[in-house]
Structures are given as C-alpha cells and as structure tokens.
Design brief:
By secondary structure, the protein is an all-alpha fold. The chain is built from 6 helices and no strands. The radius of gyration is 16 Å and the shape is elongated.
C-alpha cells in the first residue's frame, strides 16, 4: 500500500507540472495510464475482498478505496487535447475528444461512485461496501464500453 501512495504522490507532482506547461502527448498518455493502473490494482484488491478471496484489515480496505477515489480524479488530467493522436500505445478511442461532454459526465459519474466506495469502506458495513463497489464497477465499465478499445 505504501508503494501505491508513493505512486499517487508522484502522479500528483506530475499533474501539478502538467497544468503549468503543455506536456508532450506521450507523457500525458503515460500519466493517465499510470493513474489508471494504480486505480485498477487497488480496485482489484477491493473486488477480491468483496468476493471473499482476500482478507483486508479495515485500514487497508479504506486505503485501497482512497487510492481508487484519488486516481479517479487524477487520471483524467492526462486526457489532454492532442493526446488522441499520440504515438504511444493507448486504448483510448478518438471518440473521447469528439464526445467530450459525454466523456466528462462519465468521469463525474465515476468520481461520485468512487467517493461513495471510499466512504462505505470507512464504515465497515459489508453490504454497503459491496453495493458501492458494484456502482463503481458499473461506472468504470460504462466508460470502458464507450471509450476504450479492446
């Protein structure tokens, strides 16, 4: 978990720099892919916990949910104009930039769902955690179905 939080801090520092100056498309792609990897890893741990395949202490569960929530906000800083034509390997469909308002709405839906997941994880109610996990998973899937190439 310490590595996840260190990774999040590094991403935050990179994000601060990317706001100040235009960064090359390949760096923006790497940034968003890194944030989404951290998010996916932490989300996977929560999923394994929900299924009963992984035992997590309450603090570790909450830390993973916090990482998911944070990355759901940070990842989208890497979807800059011009990155749709990046030479780097990306699964992002060009429709993201053609349907920007729809994409931003899905981003907001994901962020709201991950905030609920984080809050539920702190409460310790297994049914609430499972429900919030399902909602966050649906928000992820909706965006992937629309905007991620397989």
């Amino acid at each position: 978990m310490k590595k996840v939080l260190i990774g999040a801090a590094v991403l935050a520092a990179l994000a601060a720099g990317s706001v100040a100056a235009q960064v090359p498309a390949d760096r923006s792609v790497k940034y968003r892919q890194s944030a989404l990897t951290v998010m996916s890893t932490s989300f996977g741990r929560i999923g394994a916990y929900v299924k009963g395949d992984l035992k997590l202490e309450p603090a570790a569960l909450a830390q993973n949910a916090e990482a998911v929530e944070l990355m759901s906000k940070m990842a989208f800083d890497g979807f800059l104009q011009g990155t749709e034509q990046s030479s780097g390997a990306t699964k992002a469909k060009p429709e993201i930039w053609k349907e920007w308002d729809k994409f931003k709405k899905m981003q907001g839906d994901l962020q709201a769902a991950t905030t609920k997941l984080h809050e539920a994880s702190k409460g310790g109610d297994a049914k609430a955690i499972q429900a919030a996990f399902g909602q966050a998973g649906q928000a992820c899937k909706a965006c992937h179905d629309a905007y991620r190439a397989q």
